[in-house]
């Protein structure tokens, strides 16, 4: 079918007054409900578009995220405080002689674990290293709420010549970082003091306490080995 | 010992990971047109953008809190240079790369019109590997990664993002298979 595009458009048909009245009411209600221009944009065809179609939902998401963060932080603090109040250092292992001189090793009834069981934190600051048998001694494993700590000492010429931390807590990033910082300090203090009487490293109280326990058990074992050696000879 | 920075670091890390997964899910549901009829597409798009921005904010707080905590040993190089961490290098590297990916995705979303559509889409899809790396970072370095709650909730959250991703990929594959006969 051919149509003449250049023909003049037909005159507009008159709108029914009822329809016109409805259109006017609609335009008036839209004008009344349209928010101010600060929260939206007006497109070229004159229709109003919201800038944030999910404004309330986004606000709810922000609120939920903040609540979750606060709740999780409170939960972490709670679990930490509960752990701190209920967990004390506990010795879960026994001290063992890794390498002892022949005389000590041949001593009858040599029982390396005998001293470890009686080791207490209080004793850690009192015993010294007088008359230690040469050798390498691994201390008992002292477990605090962050994990186990075990220390090994090497005795040569009756003196502690080396201290190695065989185990430190590795459960989380903070424990690893704290132990990386605290362990060298504890080792140097133990070597200079020649005993388990070391100062607590700031920020590493649990590690220090466990370290002292394990170190003392290793020293006690070296001391007991000396006593047994002299008794047999 | 004041541990509040440590708690903030952990909690914002968890929340940021969940927000990244949620933003990804929203985006794929929107692009695959699986959003239903109850809510308008504009709502889904706006939520997707909002969740992405929120994920970036919480990631930034996570990074700042980790840097500010003196016990964590996180320095500027660890935060900004991949592979510069003294310990747990790989886990830190995934986190740094994921952070950069998120920054690129979010900051190219606003001036979207400046890019060609194909270029923008390629850049925007960086959000998928960025989110995956963030999850690996959380699993390898997170202090709570081995708790039962994490082992249950994290796979659920990842599944919630993988499902719309699968829908999107399936939709694309279906569209291509239908286009192929027409071209011949």
Summary keywords:
heterodimer; A: about 230 residues; alpha+beta; six-stranded antiparallel beta sheet; two-stranded antiparallel sheet; 7 helices; about 45% helix; rod-shaped; B: about 180 residues; mainly alpha; Four Helix Bundle (Hemerythrin (Met), subunit A); about 0% strand
Architecture overview:
The complex is a heterodimer of chains A (233) and B (184). Chain A is built from seven helices and eight strands. In chain A, a hairpin with a 5-residue loop joins strand 1 and strand 2. In chain A, helix 6 (173-193) crosses helix 7 (205-232). Chain A is of the alpha+beta class and 233 residues long. Mean pLDDT of chain A is 73; it is low at 102-127. Chain B has a single domain (3-179), classed as Four Helix Bundle (Hemerythrin (Met), subunit A). Helix content of chain B is 76%, strand content 0%. Chain B has helices at residues 4-31, 41-68, 76-80, 89-107, 117-124, 127-141, 148-183. The termini of chain B are far apart. In chain B, 38% of the residues are buried. At the A-B interface, helix 2 and helix 6 of A face helix 1 and helix 2 of B.
């Amino acid at each position: 079918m051919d149509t003449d595009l250049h023909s003049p458009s037909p005159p507009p048909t008159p709108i029914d007054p009822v329809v016109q009245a409805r259109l006017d009411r609609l335009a008036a209600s839209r004008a009344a409900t349209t928010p101010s221009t600060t929260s939206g944009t007006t497109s070229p065809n004159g229709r109003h578009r919201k800038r944030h179609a999910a404004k309330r939902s986004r606000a709810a998401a922000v609120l939920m995220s903040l609540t979750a963060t606060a709740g999780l932080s409170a939960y972490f603090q709670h679990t930490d405080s509960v752990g701190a109040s209920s967990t004390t250092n506990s010795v879960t292992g026994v001290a063992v002689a890794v390498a002892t001189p022949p005389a000590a090793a041949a001593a009858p009834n040599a029982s390396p674990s005998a001293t470890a069981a009686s080791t207490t934190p209080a004793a850690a600051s009192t015993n010294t290293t007088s008359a230690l048998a040469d050798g390498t001694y691994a201390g008992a494993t002292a477990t605090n709420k962050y994990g186990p700590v075990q220390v090994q000492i090497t005795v040569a010429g009756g003196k502690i010549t080396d201290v190695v931390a065989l185990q430190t807590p590795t459960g989380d990033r903070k424990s690893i970082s704290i132990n990386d910082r605290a362990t060298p300090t504890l080792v140097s203090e133990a070597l200079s003091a020649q005993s388990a009487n070391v100062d607590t490293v700031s920020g590493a109280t649990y590690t220090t306490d466990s370290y002292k326990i394990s170190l003392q058990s290793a020293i006690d074992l070296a001391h007991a080995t000396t006593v047994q050696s002299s008794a047999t000879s | 010992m004041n541990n509040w920075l440590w708690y903030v670091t952990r909690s914002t890390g968890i929340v940021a990971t969940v927000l990244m997964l949620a933003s990804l899910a929203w985006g794929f549901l929107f692009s695959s047109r699986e959003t239903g009829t109850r809510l308008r597409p504009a709502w889904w798009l706006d939520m997707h953008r909002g969740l992405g921005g929120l994920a970036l904010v919480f990631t930034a707080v996570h990074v700042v809190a980790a840097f500010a905590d003196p016990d964590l040993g996180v320095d500027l190089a660890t935060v900004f240079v991949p592979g510069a961490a003294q310990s747990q290098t790989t886990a830190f590297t995934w986190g740094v790369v994921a952070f950069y990916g998120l920054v690129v995705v979010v900051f190219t979303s606003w001036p979207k019109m400046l890019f060609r559509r194909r270029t923008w889409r390629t850049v925007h899809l960086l959000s998928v590997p960025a989110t995956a790396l963030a999850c690996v970072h959380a699993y390898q370095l997170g202090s709570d990664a081995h708790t039962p709650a994490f082992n249950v909730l994290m796979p659920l959250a990842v599944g919630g993002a993988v499902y719309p991703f699968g829908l999107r990929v399936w939709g694309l594959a279906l569209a291509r298979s239908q286009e192929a006969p027409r071209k011949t």
